[in-house]
Each structure stands twice: as structure tokens, then as C-alpha cells.
Design a protein that fits this description.
The protein is α/β, with parallel strands linked by helices. The protein contains 12 helices and 20 strands. It is 33% helix and 20% strand. The model has no long low-confidence stretch (mean pLDDT 95). The structure holds inosinic acid. The site of inosinic acid has 21 residues, from α4.
Length: 426
């Protein structure tokens, strides 16, 4: 039995899907525990590429139970569409469980987010516009929340939708007088129909996971977004609205952290960020564009070009410590192969002071000047290399520097999208 967790240590998009997919064979259960259809996971399976958003990456493998746990926010329409898209491609969906405690995203959540982001102008968070933050806001506020289990209590649901939608319509109309109000009956009918289709999947996933642990099943927790987007520990307010660091596993699944045997922190060999917020090592030059082109750094969900820059050991080390990782998986190392030299940010200078601590305020991070350690590049195609010892010495030195600065060992290195393009330390 083993309980493994895979979490991103940067601002998301660390290619966690590939690591989860590699490890899925060794696990009975794969669990998504936070976020919603803001996440985008690319998984290669049987020579095909699949882009998953809400469904756990284990969905492609027969015999694996996939769990969408309590901390996830669920857009039932998106959920069903993703299931149908997989079925259409011949994937047989096995045991798939959805928490009855998970909160539900409604069309008014998307509408609210659109007006709120618009009104922030240049200060917009740059969200994925999926209604994630507005749904979590209602969850924390409690009085406007609707959970998956509520979809099966028609009297409660009708009453709650009537009350909530009246208030949402008032707010949305205040922002936009020509706004076409939501109709509670229409939404009730629409969501009741989704609920009927999802009924076989909805259950108490916390009880299921506790039973799985007791029965000695191996469980894989699949992180979404990354540690620096964590609502409590990330670059607030430019974060997502749930605990996307390792801290979120306990919160979002009901499985305590002490049950986890192995926590793998996934990092890109460089930095990317989508949306707003400071990113000290961002390169607004031809090197940044080179990384974007070589790494195909465009958002899986929104298609937005990602902001690219050098590896930031201050930010990533902080993410690793908050998440409590045991080891690192360094992804997309091949993307840096054509560069003459490569840099790693080992400290910041803030108001003339050198620090290796990650600032708690976005305004301090915005003025942090990266202090780089420059290393020679390897200028060699490494995509065919299968053993760490066969990597060019410069690439090994680059990985050693990451391990030294983060103070965690590099256990896995990826040099391409295929499963074979993965190397493991002994
Ligand atoms: P939200 O999660 O849609 O509220 O967006 C909040 C912030 O998190 C924005 O900067 C998004 O670009 C970012 N974000 C959300 N999901 C992901 C992801 O899966 N990868 C990278 N960034 C994400």
C-alpha cells in the first residue's frame, strides 16, 4: 500500500498530468481534491493526447477508481461534456465517484466573475472565467452555497435557487442594467437533469477514501494549479481560490496528511505564469519568447500565452516547503536545450536587501529583483536520453543546482511528453 501525492510547486502548469499518469499504474485510486474546470491536464495515453480539466487523470486507465473529492467545485455541464468527449474517443469510464459535499458552479457564478474581473481593469486577477472563485466565495459565505448532495433534495434546491438567484440578479443588474436576469425555474430544471445523469457517481467520497485506506488500497492524490496559487500561501490576491499547495490534500479530501507516504513536488525547469500578479524572473525578451515557443507555453484551458522566465529557486523553494515535499520531478528540461547559458534565481534584492525568503506581499514581490546564478547551457538534443548519467554535464549541473537551492533531491526528470522520456534517480 502506498499513498502518493503529486503537487505543483510553481504557478501551475508544471506538467503534473504526466507524472500522475506514470504513477497511476501503481495505484488503485486517483483523487482530485481542489479546483474545478480551471485546471488543464495533458495526458498522453496509447499514443493519443487527452486534455482533461475536471476529471482525474486516472480516468484513462481501466481498473482505477477515480474520485472527485469534497474540495473540488463542480460545473456539472462541463463534467458531463468531458465524460462524453472521452466516451466518444472510446475510453470506457470505470468507477468514477463525485463527492456529495463538493460545491456546484452555476451560470450566475460565471456571470458574476465576468463583471468583477471587468471592473478590476488593470488589477484583474486574470482568472480562467470558469466561476471558480465566485463559487468558492459562496461556499465560504454559506448562505448562497449549493452542494452536489443538495441537487437531490428538490424542495431545498428550488427554494435556495429562488432566494439566491433573486439576489444575484439584483447585483448583476446593478453592474449592467441591460443584463438578462437568470430564471430560477430554468436553472432548477437544467441542474436537475444534470443531477439525474450524475446520480450513479455521487456519494460520500470521504467515507470511500477512509475505507480504501483501511483496506490497504494505494491512493494517488493529483494536485491542480500550483503551490504559489494557493489561496492562503500563494501570491495573494493573484491566486486561485482554494488550497492548491500540498496543504489542500487534507482539506479537500478528508484524508489526513499523515496518511501520505510520498509527496512529489513537480516543477518546470523554468518558470511560467498565466494571469496577473508579479513574477520576478519573467523574461519579456527573445529568451522568454524562445521558452514559450519551445515549451508550447499556451494555456490548456484558455489558450492564453503563458508568461515565461528563468527558474526561480526562491519562489519554488517556498512552494516546496509549504507543500512538504520529499522529492522533486523536474519537467521540460529539453525546452532549455538550445540556449547558450541558463540562469537560476537564487535570491531576491528587495529595497537594496538580499533575501532568499519569499515575500508575503505582492507589492514586495513586484519590486523584487532576481539575483541569478548563471550556468553554461548544454546545446544538445536531450530528448532521446534515458538515463540521468547520460545527460550532458551542464544539464546535470543545472539539476544539481536546483536540488542544492531547494534542498530537496531531484528524483524524476522529464525530457519530452512521452512516458519513455522520463528518467528516475536510483
Ligand atoms: P481562477 O482559478 O480561474 O480563479 O484563476 C485565478 C488565477 O489562477 C489566475 O491567474 C489563473 O490564470 C490561475 N490558474 C487557475 N488555474 C490554473 C491552472 O490550471 N494553471 C495555471 N494557472 C491557473
Amino acid at each position: 500500500m502506498s499513498v502518493t501525492a503529486v503537487v505543483g510547486l510553481q504557478w501551475g502548469d508544471e506538467a503534473k498530468g504526466k507524472i500522475v499518469d506514470l504513477l497511476t499504474d501503481q495505484h488503485d485510486v486517483v483523487v482530485r481534491y481542489l479546483g474545478g474546470n480551471n485546471a488543464g491536464h495533458t495526458v498522453m495515453f496509447g499514443g493519443e493526447t487527452y486534455k482533461l480539466s475536471l476529471l482525474p487523470s486516472g480516468i484513462l486507465r481501466p481498473g482505477v477508481t477515480n474520485v472527485v473529492a469534497t474540495g473540488v467545485v463542480i460545473n456539472p455541464q462541463a463534467f458531463l461534456e468531458e465524460m462524453t468527449a472521452l466516451s466518444d474517443r472510446g475510453i470506457e469510464i470505470g468507477e468514477l465517484l463525485i463527492s456529495d459535499r463538493a460545491h456546484v458552479i452555476f451560470p450566475y457564478h460565471m456571470a458574476e466573475e465576468a463583471v468583477l474581473e471587468k471592473h478590476r481593469g488593470d488589477d484583474a486577477i486574470g482568472t480562467t472565467m470558469r466561476g471558480i472563485g465566485t463559487c468558492y466565495r459562496d461556499k465560504v459565505g454559506r448562505t448562497h452555497a449549493i452542494r452536489m448532495g443538495d441537487l437531490y433534495r428538490p424542495d431545498f434546491l428550488r427554494q435556495r435557487l429562488t432566494d439566491v438567484i433573486a439576489q444575484k440578479n439584483t447585483i448583476l443588474k446593478a453592474f449592467n442594467p441591460t443584463f438578462d436576469p437568470f430564471c430560477p425555474d430554468d436553472i432548477f430544471n437544467e441542474y436537475t437533469a444534470y443531477a439525474d445523469r450524475l446520480r450513479p457517481h455521487v456519494c460520500d467520497t470521504t467515507a470511500f477514501l477512509h475505507r480504501a485506506l483501511r483496506d490497504g488500497k494505494s491512493i494517488l492524490f493529483e494536485g491542480a494549479q500550483g503551490s504559489l496559487l494557493d489561496i492562503d500561501h500563494g501570491t495573494f490576491p493573484y491566486v486561485t481560490s482554494s488550497n492548491s499547495s500540498g496543504c489542500g490534500i487534507h482539506v479537500g479530501s478528508g484524508v489526513p496528511e499523515r496518511a501520505i507516504d510520498r509527496m512529489i513536488g513537480v516543477v518546470k525547469a523554468y518558470t511560467t505564469r498565466v494571469g496577473g500578479g508579479p513574477c520576478p524572473t519573467e523574461l519579456d525578451d527573445e529568451v522568454g519568447q524562445h521558452i514559450r515557443d519551445e515549451g508550447n507555453e499556451y494555456g490548456t484551458v484558455t489558450g492564453r500565452p503563458r508568461r515565461c522566465g528563468w527558474f526561480d529557486a526562491v519562489a519554488t523553494g517556498y512552494g516546496a516547503r509549504v507543500s512538504g515535499v520529499d522529492s522533486l520531478a523536474v519537467m521540460l528540461l529539453d525546452v532549455l536545450s538550445k540556449l547558450d547559458d541558463v540562469s537560476i534565481c537564487e535570491a531576491y534584492e528587495i529595497n537594496g536587501e538580499r533575501t532568499a525568503d519569499f515575500p508575503s506581499h505582492a507589492a514586495d514581490l513586484a519590486i523584487a529583483k532576481p539575483i541569478y546564478r548563471m550556468l553554461p547551457g548544454w546545446k544538445q538534443d536531450i530528448t532521446g536520453i534515458r538515463r540521468l548519467t547520460d545527460l550532458p554535464s551542464q544539464a546535470r549541473a543545472y539539476l544539481d543546482t536546483i536540488a542544492e537551492l531547494l534542498e530537496f533531491p531531484v528524483q524524476i526528470v522529464s525530457v519530452g511528453p512521452d512516458r519513455e522520456q522520463t528518467m528516475f534517480a536510483d
